[in-house]
From TrEMBL, chains A, B:
Residues 308-328 are annotated as: Disordered. It is found in: Periplasm. The keyword Metal-binding applies. Its main location: periplasm. This is Cytochrome B6. It comes from Vibrio variabilis. Pfam families: CCP_MauG, Cytochrom_C.
Length: 328, 328
């Protein structure tokens, strides 16, 4: 009886803490997406690992957004067709459906639009939408899967990117220690992490890194207070809008799973998380952190590592005689 | 009661057919390996997908022996470091523990010896054993996993290759239609497949393609009766033994899952299975197959596609500050 009361009390307290924290904290809980069409999810997962969407038949979505590695490749920028070096750091696919726009410069409004990009990018998969679709259409098993998921006999890039985007919606990372704390478990965070979170708020980091992603909700200039020194020629949003004041303006990246998604910044120039924290405080907020402060904020950021998606590798159907052969 | 008797009768008949077929047929059933050390299997699976065993941190075992693709990359020869094109077609890892030796020219006696090769091959992962081991040793989670699996504080290449080889032993593909037929299920094969199997034996294919792998038990000259025309400069076993009679002598490849492991032959020059069948009959046995014969043998070969391994992608532990950075 005592146990029941204690448990009920704990639950009530937890709910109360949850309600309070949820309403007052700048970072919100991430939950799994429910209600997705499983046939589209399964097809999208298969396409995610499908290197025949690339000219060489060796590069898949997972090559640069590796689900074994926090949804990234841990390179400054990705390696594509014929060892081309990409122009910008590969953002994580984890929780990416929660970004307000896609790509560093926001040139895609959602994951469907985003998924179309790398297939035809000559530095990435170096294929074309037509060739990718022709490849899928030539394989009887893909014909059957697209028919079952979308009711179509003729596959188009629309179904391809919709399936990939639907799969990507499953790539949430719930139940991080921070989320457990948000939900009322006071023991989910260490003292250093709680102090780090307080510092994170006090120093002003949450001005940009807020919402369920701790980021991904707005654009911001890289080098707001002091210029960011980089060899990377990317000019950010200016390339899209043409406006001078959009120079070096990028989407604020998520800090979810940031412990796994090194190296940091759009140029992938910084490998240590604590160094990235200190630099951001300095360049974006004009504040010099002590070693103790940057260390505690780093500890807090590690509490944003959630449960990584459990992915069973698909079995890709074999090519048919008509399927185009790789261009190496 | 009738059902029970009927079922018992069926079982008895099945066992009897199994016993007869098992003792008389040149190709034998494949079964899963049991009794492996799970901590080594799990560690080996993680290492299988670990691109930090390569200089660029982008190439893993799975890059060329893709478990989503029948354990191969479906390329004439693999793409390695800085887009190097390898000298020979990538053999499937599926059931590879049953090969009597490893590599096309048999230069490794077992999977442990084989696994050490690609890591330091400049055309493949282009790393060194020392650098690969240093990388693993620098990551606390790997230290803990190697300690748990092997009881060692200091990782060496021996544990690395042992873990990978132990995982590879799990990559059997049991329960192919042909194996079900071998076990006594007369309905597991189509009429064309049974006729194709009879032809496969009558034409003499089983002289080389026998045993549980339907291959992998001996060396044989490629172009035994008529020369094999190829641009590939590989001289086969001669490179190992120095003997002129070993020129163009290679390990006979397995035909298990051959439907998935195109393109065919050590040079990866033939993409259609039926064409490969006709060529083999001509070059190795001096026999011209009719279209009907090559078609039926091809149908039989497709009955050798077994259950593909169900692989849950590992979550690779993040690098530490001391971990060497990728060499791109």
């Amino acid at each position: 009886m005592k146990t029941v009361i204690a448990a009920s009390l704990l639950t009530a307290l937890s709910f109360s803490a949850f309600a309070e924290r949820q309403s007052s904290e700048p970072i919100q809980v991430i939950e799994p997406v429910v209600g997705l069409d499983q046939s589209k999810v399964d097809l999208g997962k298969t396409l995610w690992f499908e290197p025949r969407l690339s000219a060489s038949n060796t590069i898949s979505c997972n090559s640069c957004h590796n689900l074994a590695k926090g949804g990234v490749d841990n390179l400054p920028s990705s390696i594509g067709h014929k060892w081309a070096i990409g122009p910008i750091n590969s953002p994580t696919v984890l929780n990416s459906d929660l970004n307000f726009v896609q790509f560093w410069n926001g040139r895609a409004k959602d994951l469907r639009e985003q998924a179309a990009g790398p297939i035809e990018n000559p530095l990435e998969m170096a294929f074309s939408h037509d060739l990718a679709v022709d490849t899928l259409q030539s394989i009887p098993q893909y014909q059957a899967w697209f028919k079952a998921a979308y009711g179509v006999d003729t596959i188009t890039i629309t179904e391809v990117t919709d399936a990939i985007a639907t799969f990507e919606q499953t790539l949430r990372t719930p139940n991080s220690p921070f989320d457990q704390w948000l939900k009322g478990d006071d023991n989910a965070l260490t003292t250093a992490q709680i102090e780090g979170y307080q510092l994170f708020k006090e120093k002003g980091c949450t001005a940009c890194h807020s919402g369920p992603l701790a980021g991904g909700q707005m654009y911001q200039k890289m080098g707001l207070v002091k210029p960011f020194a980089t060899d990377n020629p990317d000019i950010g949003r200016k390339a899209i809008t043409g406006n001078e004041f959009d120079k070096f303006v990028f989407k604020v990246p998520t800090l979810r799973n940031v412990e796994l998604t090194y190296p940091y910044f759009h140029d992938g120039s910084v490998w240590q998380l604590e160094e990235a924290v200190s630099m951001m405080a300095d360049l974006q907020l004009g504040k010099k952190l002590t070693k103790d402060e940057s260390g505690k904020i780093t500890e807090f950021l590690k509490s944003l590592t959630g449960e990584q998606p459990s992915i069973t590798l698909p079995h890709l159907p074999p090519s048919a005689d008509e399927t185009a052969r790789p261009n190496i």
